[in-house]
Design goal:
With about 70 residues, the protein is mainly β. It is about 5% helix and about 50% strand. A six-stranded antiparallel β-sheet has the order 1-2-3-4-5-6, with no helix packed on it.
Length: about 70
């Protein structure tokens, strides 16, 4: 995937996950996106499209073209 697309998703996103507050820290290393997992571990984000990613722990992440998740 184009590194420029991945780079725009890097950042910290805060909100509710189910009913609990959560801060997701998205980083880019060696052309791969990672997010902190629910237990604090580093989790790989696998792209399925330019905006939809499946994490290696089974959660999904959808980003808007602006970079903000929804």
């Amino acid at each position: 995937m184009d590194p420029a697309i991945l780079a725009k998703y890097v950042g910290v996103y805060s909100g509710l996950w189910v009913t609990r507050p959560r801060a997701a820290h998205v980083t880019l290393m060696d052309g791969t996106l990672y997010v902190n997992g629910l237990l604090g571990e580093e989790v790989r984000l696998v792209p399925h499209s330019d905006t939809f990613f499946m994490s290696s722990d089974g959660l999904t992440y959808t980003f808007r073209s602006s970079g903000a998740p929804h």
